[in-house]
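Researcher: Here's the sequence for the chain we discussed earlier.
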Amino acid sequence: MTTRETTSYLTRASDHLWPADVRKSLADTLFTIAWGAIQWPWLARSLSGGSPHHKAALLAEIGLPADALPNLGSWKADTGFLALIVEHIRAARPQTVVELGTGASSLVVARSLQLYGGGRLISCDQHADFVAATHAWLNEHGVDAEIRATPFRRPPAGRACGTTTGRCPIGSTCC
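Model: Thanks. This is the structure I predict for it:
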């Protein structure tokens, strides 16, 4: 869930999505703090977005202009991760890629699919405004993908999971 714009280091407020009857336990909170203490060096590196040199190399490889990914870092995928995605698409040439969360990676995945085999990207995000912004962003660069707004909701009674449309992106069983 990112845009080409600068985003904050804190997640977007979605308090209305968290079930009111579910509370975090003290153990959950302590685990989160401990996990953050262990993972902070890697998180800090990822939040930086990567070096300008690596970003330029990535954009050159997939034929996008230097300003196509203006603000990596924060919650966007970093250049190292995006380069791994391009490498995998080049090698595997998938026909369909399903992505959860739209943004910088959507542009890179869709462009890579366009270059290496013509597969299609199906991307889902819970925020309709990000879906619209990402779709426009991809179109500006001559890239297309199926981007869906899929807001969170409680699963149907008796089901462990559910979808907002009642169907899975690639026609398989969701649960």
